[in-house]
Amino acid sequence: MHTLLVAANPDPRSLTHHVREKLEAALHPVSVEAADLAKERFDPAFTLADRRAYHGSGTYPADIVREHRRLERATDLVLIFPVYWWSMPALLKGWIDRVFVNGWAFEHSPSSGLRPKLQALTTHLLPIAGGDSGAYERHGYEEALRTQIEHGIVDYCGSRRGATAFVYESEQPSSEATARSVDRAVRIIGGAIHARSRTLL
């Protein structure tokens, strides 16, 4: 078992990184690697070189090869991110755009169709939302976000769906309420990964 935690927030003092640190501690003794995309200065811009590699007429850029190797070591991936406009931040979306590409995360051609390639990976989601759970339910925000990521990305690449746990009301003045929401999300994601590690023993 090896878990890769990917966090996308430019502020090292943000709740995103606090949650990542708490989850990393909770996963002990499972092997964990943390990726701070902002600190690592990951470039989310999909370039001409990326496009050529996507269509099989070029090699993957060196920074993408590094991300592929990091993901190939992982049995579990946890995406930890603030919800921006009912979706993920551009930094994380660009990481997915550039890393989860044709030929590596899946293969697609007009003749053979789609062949997913990430069956060995389980992907968990830990979105950090400013709104409350009631608003997300009333407006369908949680369902929309889960459909976009779980179905549109995770399922498409053949990865197994892991746990999804929202931290709600992350911008409320009550630090105790936020702490309870964080603890719940960490418990859900950590519990799912620990349960998987026990089945693999």
From TrEMBL:
Any keyword Oxidoreductase?
A: yes
Q: Which UniProt keywords apply?
A: Oxidoreductase
Task: Say if the entry is tagged with keyword Oxidoreductase.
Answer: yes
Pfam (any one):
Flavodoxin_2
Q: Which residues form the Flavodoxin-like fold domain?
A: 1-183
Question: What InterPro entries does the database record attribute to this sequence?
Answer: Flavodoxin_fold, Flavoprotein-like_sf, NAD(P)H_dehydrogenase_qn
Membrane-crossing segments per the record: none
GO molecular function of the protein, one example?
NAD(P)H dehydrogenase (quinone) activity
Report the leader peptide range: none
Q: Which GO terms describe its cellular component?
A: cytosol
Say which family it is in.
Belongs to the NAD(P)H dehydrogenase (quinone) family.
Entry protein name: NAD(P)H-dependent oxidoreductase
The organism named in the record is Actinospica acidiphila
